[in-house]
Amino acid sequence: MTERLNNAQPYALGLFRIVTGLLFACHGAASLFGVLGGAHGGGTVPVGAWPGWYAAVIQLVGGALVMFGAGTRSAAFIASGSMAYAYFTAHQAEALFPIQNHGESSAMYCWAFLLLVFTGPGAFALDRLLPARGSRAAQPQTASETGGEQRPRAATV
Q1: What are the distances in angstroms from CA 118 to CA 51, 107, 115?
Q2: Is the pLDDT of residue 19 over 90?
Q3: Where are the alpha helices (DSSP H) in 34-97?
Q4: What does pTM read for this prediction?
């Protein structure tokens, strides 16, 4: 049973990333464009308003990048930081625990995105389709390419 669950881990992580990114992007779309109920029950956030408009841009762009698995770790890092900022500036002053200060979504998004920073995108990600920087194409691997000496192969992630 454990082996089957371990084999499914990249797919479960990929689905987690897709759903989390989609939900986060919906928050940004609601705030920027007034769709899906709008910002705070209706309307939009004024352009350039600090911090709401910038947070909405991070939510829309970061959520989309995470959802598609493009630059996942970087986008998740920025999204996690923005949610930590939101929690500590907008919610934590009201009460200590998220259930008391209405900061559950900020706290959950912060930790969910931080998890993706460390785990990577999982399956179904655009990141998996692009070659990694410093890939084998940039480093000769055979004895004939290195002038006769054997060069060890680099580990790929």
Answers
A1: 27, 17, 5
A2: yes
A3: 52-68, 72-86
A4: 0.79
